[in-house]
């Protein structure tokens, strides 16, 4: 099982790397891209939570959010739970970037999946559901 697990890890890494390189919008650094997708899913979200979930250090998360803020994709607001803290939310430009990036990544992955026969393609798509369960528990 160790060999199959390693093969899965390497293959997933290579596919994700391919998808990152194929993005026509190289506007975002990979950490910014991951943070933006997380913010879209979890907003409002604190920077400490972004650091824990990306994962990266707290200073890297702060710098990443600052870059996204400078680009007009996110803004900081008063945390609705704790008024002393700030939370990060998407702006309209950020939501548009998430939509465009998600659509482009899905299209590129669909191209890769079309290389497979139908049974293997369905197997990979079903595995995506299981992998999402694992990811959600992280």
TrEMBL record:
<dbReference type="InterPro" id="IPR036388">
    <property type="entry name" value="WH-like_DNA-bd_sf"/>
</dbReference>
<dbReference type="InterPro" id="IPR000835">
    <property type="entry name" value="HTH_MarR-typ"/>
</dbReference>
<dbReference type="Pfam" id="PF01047">
    <property type="entry name" value="MarR"/>
</dbReference>
<dbReference type="GO" id="GO:0003677">
    <property type="term" value="F:DNA binding"/>
</dbReference>
<feature type="domain" description="HTH marR-type">
    <location>
        <begin position="5"/>
        <end position="138"/>
    </location>
</feature>
<dbReference type="GO" id="GO:0003700">
    <property type="term" value="F:DNA-binding transcription factor activity"/>
</dbReference>
<protein>
    <submittedName>
        <fullName>DNA-binding MarR family transcriptional regulator</fullName>
    </submittedName>
</protein>
<dbReference type="InterPro" id="IPR036390">
    <property type="entry name" value="WH_DNA-bd_sf"/>
</dbReference>
<dbReference type="InterPro" id="IPR052526">
    <property type="entry name" value="HTH-type_Bedaq_tolerance"/>
</dbReference>
<keyword id="KW-0238">DNA-binding</keyword>
């Amino acid at each position: 099982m160790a060999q199959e697990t390693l093969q899965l890890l390497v293959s997933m890494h290579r596919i994700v790397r391919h998808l990152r390189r194929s993005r026509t919008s190289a506007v975002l650094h990979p950490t910014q891209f991951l943070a933006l997708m997380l913010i879209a899913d979890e907003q409002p979200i604190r920077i400490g939570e972004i650091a824990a979930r990306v994962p990266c250090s707290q200073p890297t998360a702060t710098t990443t959010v600052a870059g996204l803020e400078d680009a007009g994709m996110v803004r900081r607001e008063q945390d609705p739970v704790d008024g002393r803290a700030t939370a990060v939310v998407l702006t309209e430009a950020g939501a548009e970037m998430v939509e465009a990036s998600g659509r482009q990544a899905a299209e590129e992955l669909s191209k890769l999946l079309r290389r497979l026969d139908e049974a293997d393609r369905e197997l990979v798509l079903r595995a995506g559901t299981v992998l999402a369960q694992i990811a959600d528990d992280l």
